[in-house]
Amino acid sequence: MVKLIGAEQAILAQAAETVLRDLFPAAVAVATRSRDAIGAEDLQAARRRDRQLGRLCAADALFELGAPATMPSHSSPPSWPEGLTGSISHCQTLCCAVAARSGDLCALGVDVEAAVPLVEGVELVCGEIELAHFAALPGPTAGNWPLLAFSAKEAAYKCQYALTGQLLDFRDFEIDFDLITPGGGRFALRRTRALPIPAGLELRIEGRWAADRSHVYTAAWVKRSTLQG
User: Fold this and answer.
1) Domains of the chain by range and CATH?
2) pLDDT tens-digit map of 151-166
């Protein structure tokens, strides 16, 4: 039974890698690893293990790029080697990392969440305009629109933080989803208030999302050609 569970976890990790490769531009390296259940571990030990697993994924992604497979520093968020950019995400069952050379893509954001509908705390993530937009959409393949909004804003937050270093809230942005298929599409962000972004810097974050029976996935990036400032 343990072997079967291990095999299922490996299959999920491989499937997630395939989905994420489809979401990001071709220049982005992707690595995933399965994450065992926390079990009786205390929270601090689980966080240490997640950080280690995330940096192993990051090393895998850097190796794919032909860069030295050195894990990013243990700062939070991680500091990537010069000339490279990346992002890391964890959920209950998976860990993933993406990386790219910063010549064309100057910032990345990735998020993966278990496909469990977000019910509590929706008002902390989404405003009334967003909820009205979601109500007009057919349901996603898995999870629900508030969960996808949470994930997309997580990915976008990581993306902007790499360039601005600014701490933002979920409600600082509103999100629109565009369905290409019932299981995936694009998303766009708009600011709800003036944000403390450095003068002269205009971020154009591009985003895509996907959902399957087990997870929702979101990808965000900023192209060098669209970074103004």
Assistant:
1) 2-226 (3.90.470.20)
2) 999 999 999 998 888 8
